[in-house]
Structures are given as C-alpha cells and as structure tokens.
Amino acid sequence: MRAEPAASAPGGEASPRPVKAPLPTPVLNRKSGGRLLTDTRFWPTEVWKSPWSLPRYRAGAMWLAGIVLGIAAAGFAVGELAVWAEKLLALLGRTSLPPAVAAWVWVLIKLTCVIGVIVVNGLWAVWWERKISAHIQSRFGPMYAGGFHGWAQTILDSIKLLLKEDVTPAAADQPMHLLAPIMAIAPCVMAFAPVLFGDELAAAKLDVGVLYIFAFASISVIGIVMAGWASGNKYSLLGGLRAAAQIVSYELPRGFSVVPVIMFAGSLDLAVIDQAQAGYWLGFVPRWFVFYPVVGQLAFIFFLIASVAETNRTPFDIPEAESELVAGFHTEFSGIKWAMFFLMEYGYVLLSSFLLAVFFLGGGAAPLPFLDFIPSWIWMVSKAMLMMFVFLWFRWTFPRMRVDQLMDFNWKILLPWSFANIGFAGVLVYLHRSGWGPG
Amino acid sequence: MIEAIAFYSMAAVTLAGAVLVVSLRNTVHSALALGLSLAGVAGLFACLGADFLFAGQLLIYVGGIAILIVFVVMLLGRASDLHLRQVNAQWAAALLVCAITGAGLWRLGALYRHASSQVPAAATTRAIGLLMLGDFAVPFEAISLVLLAALLGAVFFSRKDIS
Known about the structure:
The complex is a heterodimer of chains A (about 450) and B (about 160). By secondary structure, chain A is an all-alpha fold. Chain A has two domains: about 45-165, no CATH class; about 165-435, no CATH class. Chain A has 14 helices and two strands; from the N terminus they run αααααααααββααααα. Chain A has helices at about 55-80, 85-95, 100-135, 155-165, 175-190, 210-215, 220-230, 235-265, 270-275, 295-310, 320-325, 335-360, 375-395, 405-435; strands spanning about 280, 285. Chain A has a two-stranded antiparallel ribbon with strand order 1-2. Chain A is globular, with a radius of gyration of 25 Å. By secondary structure, chain B is mainly alpha-helical. Chain B has six helices and no strands. Chain B has helices at about 1-25, 25-45, 50-75, 90-110, 125-135, 135-160. The longest helix of chain B is centred in the middle third of the chain and has 25 residues, at about 50-75. The termini of chain B are far apart. At the A-B interface, helix 6, helix 7 and helix 8 of A face helix 2 and helix 3 of B.
C-alpha cells in the first residue's frame, strides 16, 4: 500500500483540516455521444455530486421507478378502491368484452396487484432491513442514492442485479439451475391469493384459505432444494439439505399453533377469522386472539418463531450460514436468479406478517373503538409492518443457532407445547360454551 | 368448457409426471417429477371442487413427502448422480402386470363414465370435520393410533443404544 497524501498523514505539521483538491472536470467519451465516462475513478461522491447526473444510470433508474410506481399505482387504485370493485367489475361487464374474457381480465388485474405488492415489498423491505441493521449496529446504512436516507438504494441495486452476468457453473445441472428460482418464487406469488389486505380485501375468497396458504408456502422449499442440488457444489447441497430438514420440521408447529385460532373462529377462511375478532370487551379491550388468556399469547409466540424459521432468517438461518456454507443454497446464483431467492424470502416475511396480523392482531379492526374511522386496510398494513419490523429486528439481534439446537428446540419444545396449546384452547372453548367468562 | 380444459390439462400433468418418474435416468430428476405428478393430482381435486383435499394433498404430499423423498435421494450422495439402467430382465412380466391392472382400471372407470362431475362447487371443510369427529370418529382415531404406532416403531428402531 502506498502512503496516502500528506493531508491524511497521522500527526505531522500538516494543518488539522485537510485542504481539498479541486474536483477534476468530468471527461466524457466523445465517440459514444458523450454518454460513457472515461474516468470514473472518483464517482459517485467526488466528481459527481449526485449519482443522478450520470445519464444512463438516471435513465435506468427512471425506467425501473416508473415500472414500480405504475404497478404500485395499479395496486393502490384497485386495492383501495375495493369498495368500488363491484362498480369496476360492472364497468368491465359493460364493455363489449364477452363475460368469460371480462372475468379473465378481472383475474389478471388482481394478479397484477398481488405481484405488485410482492415486488414493491421486496424493494421496501431490503431498504428497511439495511436501515434497521445499520441503526442497530450504530451505522448509517444507505445514505446517498436518491437523496433522503438513500431511499432509491434498492431500486438502483435491482438495476445492478438485472445488468449483472448470469453465471451458470460448469458442474451445474443446467435446466434445474434455471428452474430452481422459478420454483421458489412461483408458489410465493400463488400463496398470496387469499391474503387479506383489509376487511374483505383479498384477491380470492377461499373457504380453505389458511390451508391453501400453508400448502403453497410449503412448496417453495422444493425450489430451494433444487437450487442446492443443481449448483453442483457441496456447500450448496448442504444448504439445500438443511433447508429441507428445517422447513419440513418447522411446518408442523407452525400449522398446529394456528389450530387454536381456527377453533375460536370456527373457519379456515381468513375473512371469517378477521371478522371473529371485531368488537371490544368492556368497551375498550379489543377481542383479538392474542388477548385470549394464555392460549392466545402462546399461539402467537409459537407462530412467530416458526414463521421466522420458515423464512430461513437468523436465528434460524443455518441453510445459508455464511460462516459455514459460504451462502448456502444460493452460492452459485447471480444476477436476477439470485434476486428471485431474495424476493421469495421477503415475500414470505410479508406473508407471515399479514398472517400474524390476521390471526392474532385483529386484522383490519381498530385497536380502540373511536379509531374506527380509519379504513381497515391502513390498520391491516400497519399491523403487518409492525410484525415485519419484529422479523427484521430479530435478524440483527440474535445469534445463529446450531443445527442440533434448532432441531431439539422444534421437536422437544415447540411441537409438544403447540399440541398442549390446542388442549388449552379446547378447555377455553368449552368454558366459553358453558357460559363462563366475558361474552 | 374451461373446466374441461383445466381438468384434462391437470390429468396430462399428472400422467406426464408419472411417466417421467420411471423414464428419467437421473434419480433426483425422477424425485422432482414425482412432486409434479402429485401436484397434478392436487389440481385434479381442485377441478372437481374438493377444496379441502386439494390443500391437503399439496400440504402433505407435495410439501412433505415429495420433499422428504428428494431429501433422501440427495443424501445418497454420488449414487444420485449415477445414470441407472431403466429396465432389467423382468420387463416383460412388469409390462404384463401393468397391462392387466390398466385393463381392470379401465373397466372400473367405464362403470362411472356417465356419472356427472358437475357438482356445484361448495365448501367441504365443515362437512368433512363433522363426519370425521362424528360418524367416522372410531375409524379416524384407529388410523391415528396406527400412525402413532408406526412413529414410535421408527423411533425405537433408529435408536442406537438399545439396552
């Protein structure tokens, strides 16, 4: 390493404040119409005060921001205006489209909204996670891109991921390597179909909603296992194996911890579960399932822990433990394929947050009676965001568990106690039916 | 019309997956094709309006059993990379058994050829729950007992220090 210029030399007679050299004039490559820089050594903070002044970068960012905003606007328009959904449907019907085609168009609109939610959530959650981790570790996190606290950082990151080379290792199984990210992300999108974004605000009303979500959420692990195996790399293979063992194990307590909720509500339909928590005890205590004595709190904690394990996040991130397995199952993935795995992870974090909000935190119900005037979707999304914060907070404050600790914890603590919790819930339901307790 | 297209495409997925399970030369590919075939069966349930069976099939077979099979196949290590022969000396006998079973199934299916599958789609979960804990409570509990015995047996035999 060469010594730095005198300005930063320790001690010495140099003035305490280093004199800044004047910024070099930006040099543009004339041959390409002034588009490419020939000298980008000091970019972005030295030569270019703002990264937005780089034309191609700016154009790409604008495009992506435009696409994202368009999807978000479509999601917002159709989502918030769900009250007007019938009118919108009628409008579709009044066009000259045949009814079958109009129904398909309606499904496509809803699909676009759901995919929009997942994509925008990916951008938002990665930025938020970076900010939270930075503040937990006394850092700043992204600060430059876009101006305000680096809000555009993940948008620019996704441009970078789109432009990166897609590397397939020589030892990889080519078709499986291509198929794995698709197999991981597709069930994630499908699992969002019955998710409530507010009272009665869901893409599909399913009588078996809870089972449906758990069923599709359990398929994604096939994509992870395929990724691990198809990479032709022993770290990846180990990561895939660990992911399979962990997710199949934690699915059991995750499913059983919800059984009390289903018993209280008497349905697998998310909308019914949401409605069952409306109202207040004594006029001010919300009748949320998390406030049911003992059973509610236990179920909430079990579901939260099992959900963190299902999303492969710290303290349960042994499938991608950096200190042991490089990056686990996604070691050999790059560019947009790698991004798909991250989209999946944050998609499932969002899914779990919404499920926690619907199952335990009253869904779209206001916490206090006089706050009823705020629309249900605001309550739902804020509760989900609160739960998402808990997920991100966990990741940056807990150390990673060992494989044996992980399995012991699941099979010896979570699973038996979630069974016991079903028994407690039965006692509670029996007492309630025989006239004990407040309404 | 759309129902028929959905049903026959799901049937095609199921059959194609099943054929791939036995014809692919790589064991891991076969295991994944088994998952595809099981998912196709779930799709068939959905087409026939059995929503609870659809979710249960996906949850247990695709999300559980198929993954455990892939898990075991991957644990075989290098053997999973072997490109095994697809037939052995018994192929003629196997073909005969398949033909007889197929013919029997065909005749059985012919009995119900004119039965309508156009039941109006209705939620089945509540009815299934009432039946399982009402009329069929004893068989249901007996099956759980058998499964519990199997579970305990597996734990007993996999223990290393049997004193």
